[in-house]
Amino acid sequence: MIGVLFLSFKSQVSNSTKWVINKSGYLQVKGTTTINTFTCVIPNYNRPDTIILLNNKSFIKLRGEISLSVNAFDCHNVMMTAQLRKTLKAAQYPNIKIRFISLNELPDLNGQRKRVKGCVEIVLANVTKRCDIDYQISQDEQNYIHLTGTHNVNFSDFKLTPPTKLGGMIKTDDQLGIEFQLQFKEI
After folding, report:
1. CA 20 to 30 Å from 26, out of 11, 50, 122, 161?
2. pLDDT in the model for residue 4
3. Separation CA 42–CA 26 (nearest Å)
4. H/E stretch holding 101
5. How far is residue 56's CA from residue 46's CA, in Å, rounded to a whole number?
6. Beta-bridge partner residues of 110
7. Domain ranges of the chain
8. In this structure, is the dihedral angle defined by the CA atoms of residues 79, 92, 68 and 179, taken in order, positive or negative?
9. 128-149 b/e with 16+ CB inside 10 Å = b?
10. Burial of 111 (C-beta count, 10 Å sphere; 0-12/13-18/19+)
């Protein structure tokens, strides 16, 4: 039995790949209010983290996460930025985390953008939500892997109330579009 477990573990380890996250990338959220649209961005992901891929022939399991400061959000409007940070409870829960769970496939990275599906967990305001993500993945001439993920979430998914202004005259819709882009290098 121990030999079978060892062989299984050895097989998983031999099919693993490590990707180091480069210090470039971003997270942006897009939303609408009763009077306009807004975009808020965390413009730079500046921590070198590692994502581990375990290739199991039928799917790709991922291990790793990124952690982003809620206070790094910039909505290009001081009042909107402050309101978003307050709504996301930045003082109490200062980080958004994205935990990488899986990819449905690892396409041949030959410079062309490929679409793949994946799964992540988003941790926001101490609430964890598992989400299916649509990715675009490509590799450039310097062998950097570019991964862009998109997904729509609701404030209510994380037990948050969308912000309002002027006594409720201006309301933010519950739904936010999330997009993140990361750059990796295989090691």
Report:
1. 161
2. 35
3. 6
4. strand 95-103
5. 31
6. none
7. 16-186
8. negative
9. eeebebebebbbeeeeebbbbb
10. exposed
Cα–Cα distance measured from residue 62 to residue 149, given in angstroms and rounded to the nearest whole number: 15
Residue 82, H or E segment: helix 78-87
Whole-number Å distance between alpha carbons of 64 and 19: 10
Are 64 and 50 within 8 A, CB to CB?
yes
Residue linked to tokens 């519950």: 174
* Identity of the residue numbered 173: D
pLDDT in tens, 74-102: 999 898 899 999 999 999 999 999 999 99
CATH 2.60.40.10 for the 16-186 domain, yes or no: no
SS3 50: strand
The whole-angstrom separation of Cα 26 and Cα 3 is: 44
Q: Which residue, among 150, 170, 122, has the nearest Cα to 29 in the 3D structure?
A: 150
Residues 105-164 have pLDDT tens digits of 877 777 678 899 999 999 999 999 999 999 998 888 888 888 899 999 999 999 999 887
